[in-house]
Amino acid sequence: MQPKAKFRKDYQAPDFTVNDIYLDIQLDADRTFVTSTLKVERKKVGAKTLRLDGHSFDFLALKVNGVAYLQYQKDDEALTIDVSDLADQFELQIETALNPSQNTSLQGLYQSGEGICTQCEAEGFRQITYMLDRPDVLAKYRTKITASKAKYPYLLSNGNRIAQGELADGRHWVEWEDPFFKPSYLFALVAGDFDLLEDKFITKSGREVALEIYVDRGNLDRAGWAMESLKRAMKWDEERFGLEYDLDIYMIVAVDFFNMGAMENKGLNVFNSKFVLAKPETATDEDYLNIESVIAHEYFHNWTGNRITCRDWFQLSLKEGLTVFRDQEFTSDLWSRSAKRIEDVRLLRTVQFAEDASPMAHPIRPEKVIEMNNFYTVTVYEKGAEVIRMIHTLLGEELFQKGMQLYVAENDGKAATCEDFVSAMERASNIDLTQFRRWYSQSGTPELTVRDEYDENTQCYRLHISQFTEPTADQLEKLNLHIPVKLALYGETSGQKIPLIDENGSVGDVLSLTQAQQTFEFYHVSERPIPALLADFSAPVRLSYDYTIAQLIRLLTCVENDFSRWDMIQTLFNRELRENLFNYHQGDLMQFNMDFLEALKVLMDDENVDTGLKALMLTLPKETEFAEQFKIIDPQGIAVVRQYLLESIATACQDRLFRLYQENRCGAYRVVAEDIDKRALRNVCLSYLAFTDQGEELVSSHYEEADNMTDTLAALIAATKAQLACQEELLADFEAQWSHDGLVMDKWFALQATRPDDDVLAIVEKLMAHPSFNLNNPNRVRALVGAFASQNPKAFHAVDGSGYRFLVEVLIKLNESNPQVAARLIEPLIKLSRYDNQRQTLMRRGLERLKGLDNLARDLFEKIEKALL
Ligand code: TRP
Ligand code: ZN
């Protein structure tokens, strides 16, 4: 049977609701018994059948109002109960039995290491028991867990611990009650033996909250950073958003087997251990910052997600876009705002723009879904956050916060829609968002084309901006959007910033583009200006303006906005790659533009540029970043030309790079901005120097001297990218030191998978049998197979089709064991329209092979169907 799609337009309120659930869980890794007692209420007069979602367990018994009941029908996905003779309120009791140790899907109730945990978002609760498993059914939960005390000394669930006891047979039990109404996707249970880090937080109204972080035994020394991050997040949300925590306890559990990053279950977050555990020897600076931001993200969900949840899954961006926006602001307030912005824009421009150009293109609020797990996407999350950010740009912080307050006041305790949010923002600010709403329903990346004219005599400057959105796979017709364009003008000769004055006088720096074409006029412009367009990336669009190299270099030195500075250099890098790829295709010699090279030297010498920004500006875009400027991608050509650019800079700037390398040494490892920036700059320099005659010596000593994972990994990366003689020795040393630690080995696996070696696929295939590898662990799979397919385009897109064949083999296995992870891994294979005919044919062949599987999961089915259209 073919999986069926659901449409946003078909939403209907449920006929019944569940007000109260009591779960009695007899926990065991191989056979768990669940008795669920539901207080059901009929909402629609005369409703006769109650359809409860549920699958992948043994159904043992059903009682209605305490009496065995047989008027039901069971199919693959649900239990349909005839309730025509029942009153408007009745009680159901459902008994099921499950096998957590065999549940490799990591959804529902499953075993992770020695412990047992749950993952219910989006539709995992229905793998535990029958339920109205939809986010607009809000119930009060009470959960009693009984299990072996020796194996599972900790038994956790949402809310407050209200009772506990011991049984004669060595088992014990704990009962939990969550006072807040919540949808089933926020339910959680964890059982196991852990080390526990405890702390507390006093809220602004003076309540004390117990903070508990549970990690695998032996990892206590890696939990401190997560705890500090949690406290910073709690404080920040009070200060910037006025939002306070609402329970007396907040628990975080780190597990090794997890499909995503982390999960915001009420009062009991479950985390991928990758986003909890950190100490200097095992975690990089990037890991530290990611941990802080994921901890904050899940914490912020307590208001934007839990207290106010989603009416239906099409509204996912209501909680995710907003919560990503909030975690971005948190990181920006605590660290460098421009560095955070640059990082987010890099992700958006590569991965999200690519998604919009793919068969999976969808608006931030999708219209049609087959498998909900497929819509936890960069579009819903990152583009969703950009849409919130644009509202923030249009309203300003004060009105935005006023809008937030109204949104919270109106929707607390409810399941809301994106429209509820926009409407609150609109009413609080009195700013018309009618046209702006199209960002929620339109997919695709708008392209802005900008032309300008300057009249020296009248001192008038005109900007002509037009917008165009290409049709996407899901939507042929596109409407004009309301696009905020942040602008600054700089004098071409003086380099001075020119004030923006229109016919009404001085104006703000954000233009509102609402039509297909618009002209903006500025007066008293005393010299020919160069426009710095889309500062801070004020909208998620592509922009084209015909800058000369001279103009870009001019802006590079005078523009005040750090994001724009970085953006100018991206434009220069992109141009350099394009021109040389053309030369390469023509069989001509490649050459690096001398003016650009000079500008890079000036940048290296410029002591007024902040260290962190300098590191970002000197970072050569990745192959996947370069690729996004092409409709048809030549992965092999891009790799060759990028390599040429890298070596050209290394050779021409060796002295400067070496000087910066030496100047930016740090003392003993500390996670502070100053040192992080220094390490970043120093390691960027190393990545170039590895290609010079100093490479061997510098990289070996860098590895040896490193007292932290950031530097260790930088040395390893440099050694493998430059294929230095020392690489095998360093790789072996790292492996010997860390093979017991999966999280650390992930760095090593990813590094191996992205090696430039011609035989990298053979290396990867061999590593699939490495003792530290495990196909059932999503982190391992992403590190080895995911990195190969998505971060080594040259090898994955090998013209003999070997990369595709390898991925398909892995997907065939994952289709059965973990379809959610399989469907993420297949992404590079469904973007076939971006490649030449030869590759397209091979990719299609791989997809067709998968399509022919007789037990193809709906996760893969949905993507393959779209790709093969
Ligand atoms: N809501 C989670 C978050 O934003 C995402 C998530 C975690 C998830 N685990 C999942 C989504 C499993 C789908 C399936 O942080
Ligand atoms: Zn989230």
TrEMBL record:
The name this protein goes by in its record: Aminopeptidase N
Originating organism: Haemophilus sputorum
UniProtKB keywords: Aminopeptidase, Hydrolase, Metal-binding, Metalloprotease, Protease, Zinc
Residue ranges of every copy of the Peptidase M1 alanyl aminopeptidase Ig-like fold domain listed in the record: 444-546
Residues in Aminopeptidase N-like N-terminal domain copies: 22-186
Residue ranges occupied by any Peptidase M1 alanyl aminopeptidase C-terminal domain in the UniProt entry: 550-868
GO molecular function per UniProt: aminopeptidase activity
Catalytic activity: Release of an N-terminal amino acid, Xaa-|-Yaa- from a peptide, amide or arylamide. Xaa is preferably Ala, but may be most amino acids including Pro (slow action). When a terminal hydrophobic residue is followed by a prolyl residue, the two may be released as an intact Xaa-Pro dipeptide
A family per Pfam: DUF3458_C
CDD domains listed in its UniProt record: M1_APN
Protein family according to the UniProt entry: Belongs to the peptidase M1 family.
